[in-house]
Design goal:
One of its GO terms (molecular function) is hydrolase activity. It holds the Pfam family Metallophos. InterPro entries: Calcineurin-like_PHP, Metallo-depent_PP-like, STPP_CPPED1. The protein is globular. By secondary structure, the chain is α/β, with parallel strands linked by helices. The protein has a single domain, classed as Metallo-dependent phosphatases (Purple Acid Phosphatase, chain A, domain 2, 4-Layer Sandwich). It contains seven helices and eleven strands. The termini are far apart. The strands form two sheets. The protein has a six-stranded mixed β-sheet, with no helix packed on it. The longest helix has 16 residues. Helix 3 packs parallel to helix 4.
Length: 266
């Protein structure tokens, strides 16, 4: 008995002591996990003060799409003049750390910096804790090329339609006139045409954007297929990018306070 039990016990102890071994769906970080990806990549990006042509990629719903994410990364790295990439939520399917790490390892090979927005699947299990550790706050903003990008949580269903998601007071504060900012772009996962968006907050949400001078577009994912819609008569476009699994993304270009959008397969 001693001959066989001791090696088994040692092996078990070795596995259980290794921080990189994914032993529980409740795990939110390990020693190999990335930390504060958004903040680190935004530091790399800088403020683009002298960049008069802003070009970025919008993608989303990378869950269950590791191979497609690898091909996406190669495609983006072949494209000239891309300033940054936005992954608009649902990095994971089950909110599990290992899923988030798999996708992040592929996206880390992008030449341009990237940032991520929280998706509804990322809020399942312990996904919220894993996301905030690896990427940062659920609501944040940054300025590049005189444009303020307001990234926020619109996953109302996962917050039990509590009337606070999206956080409209926070959005209003972020979109106040600001020196050096001429335009605004909102980015979130769930669009206001979805049943997963709190129906009681739709008007306040869209009215807020309509009232912001220089507001260019509201950008989303979640539906897995490309959509363009106008929820009111403000003329503001609401775009939904296709999913990573459908091998298509949006190229957004902003020049002279005007935005253009191109669907690109890969």
């Amino acid at each position: 008995m001693r001959v066989f039990v001791a090696p088994i016990m040692i092996a078990v102890m070795g596995f259980s002591s290794c921080n990189s071994f994914e032993y529980s769906p409740n795990q939110t970080f390990d020693r190999n996990s990335y930390r504060d990806i958004n903040a680190g990549n935004l530091k790399r990006l800088g403020d683009g003060r002298n960049d008069d042509t802003v070009r970025f990629i919008l993608t989303g719903d990378t869950q269950r799409s590791r191979d497609e994410t690898v091909r996406f990364t190669k495609k983006i790295n072949e494209m000239p003049g891309i300033d940054f990439v936005v992954v608009a939520g649902d990095i994971t399917e089950f909110g599990v750390l290992q899923e988030m790490e798999w996708i992040s390892r592929s996206l880390a090979k992008l030449k341009p910096p990237y940032v991520a927005v929280i998706g509804n699947h990322d809020l399942t299990s312990r996904g919220r804790d894993a996301f905030t550790t690896m990427f940062g706050p659920l609501n944040y903003s940054f300025i590049y090329g005189g444009i303020k990008f307001v990234c926020h949580d619109t996953n109302s269903r996962e917050h039990k339609f509590n009337g606070q998601t999206p956080d409209i007071p926070w959005l209003k504060a972020e979109m106040q006139p600001q020196e050096g900012v001429s335009n605004y772009v909102a980015i979130s996962h769930v669009a206001p045409n979805s049943d997963d968006f709190d129906q009681a907050l739709i008007k306040g949400y869209t009215d807020n954007f309509a009232a912001v001078p220089g507001f260019l577009a509201s950008l989303h994912a979640h539906a897995h297929n490309y959509q363009l819609f106008y929820p009111d008569d403000s003329g503001i476009p609401y775009y939904i990018t296709s999913s990573m699994g459908n091998e298509e993304f949006l190229l957004v270009e902003i020049i002279n306070h005007k935005a253009s959008f191109e669907r690109i397969p890969f």
